[in-house]
Amino acid sequence: MKRSKWALPYFIFLVLFVLLPLIIIAVYAFRATDGTFTMSNISAFFTKPTIVKTFWRSMEIAVENTLICLLIGYPVAFILADKNLNKSAFTAILFILPMWINALMRTIATAEIFHAAGLPLGRGSLLFGMAYDYLPFMIYPIYTVLNKMDKSYSEAARDLGASSFKAFTKVTLPLSLPGIMSGIMMVFMPTVSTFAVAEILTRNKIQLFGSLINEQFNNMMWGQGAALSLIMLVIVGLTTLLPTGEAEETEGGTI
């Protein structure tokens, strides 16, 4: 049997569960209720104030959550990768443990914690819950890069007179950019399209773009829901084209 035939099951899977659904979404996005071609579903994204406002709110919250995860996740990844600061590999597993629990259950538990503490559900609870859910996706790409990094680079910088801070900013941080960019994409993309987390942690007080899409389909507005889904797909696809710095990562680094 030719090796190429081993790829046939994967090709069939991609056609049935990736390509075909995308084609169906595209067809509904450019189709009116009477079956004719229309651009009104797409144009609604640019002309309806409610949709535009919801989209920018989603982008704003996604950026805020990504920054929170980065500010918390990078120091954690740095500590986990430093053998002097973290002498046990078991510590890294502790950050995986929450991922063993269903994401919906974690979100409901977070909402109950706020309720038990008498804290209001709103933007604060939403960002807290999102950071809790997506923080591991920021930590581990950065941790992987830092753990594989040749520590002799920063040691050489300090031997040449650089302070620990300068060695970090000039050596460690630039070399860890691929992990940072991977973490940003892994956090930003699911955040901007989520809907269940926002509905549970805000009691529907804050509507995100994913919630709006879900609402369109629940109201049997298939054309507009498909159009918004297609636009979101394009936006998420464009974020994957952002440079990750991997092409610039060389054996000698950027010292």
Structural summary, described in words:
Helix content is 71%, strand content 0%. It has 255 residues and is mostly helical. The chain has one domain (21-248): MetI-like fold, CATH 1.10.3720. Helix 1 (8-29) crosses helix 12 (222-239) and helix 11 packs antiparallel against helix 12 (222-239). The longest helix is centred in the first third of the chain and has 33 residues, at 49-81. The radius of gyration is 22 Å and the shape is globular. It starts with 7 loop residues before the first helix and ends in a 16-residue tail after the last helix. The relative contact order is 0.14. Residues 247-255 have low confidence and may be disordered.
Order of helices and strands: HHHHHHHHHHHH
Assign the CATH class.
Mainly Alpha
Radius of gyration: 22 Å
How would you characterize the largest beta sheet?
A: none
Helix-strand makeup class: mainly alpha
In CATH, the homologous superfamily goes by the name MetI-like
Which CATH architecture?
Answer: Orthogonal Bundle
State the share of residues found in helices, binned by percent.
over 70%
Q: Could you name the CATH topology?
A: MetI-like fold
Give the overall average pLDDT: 87
Number of helices: 12
Number of domains: 1
Number of strands: 0
Which term fits the overall shape?
A: globular
- Percent strand equals under 5%
Head-to-tail CA distance between termini: 50 Å
**Ranges with pLDDT <50 over ≥5 residues?**
247-255
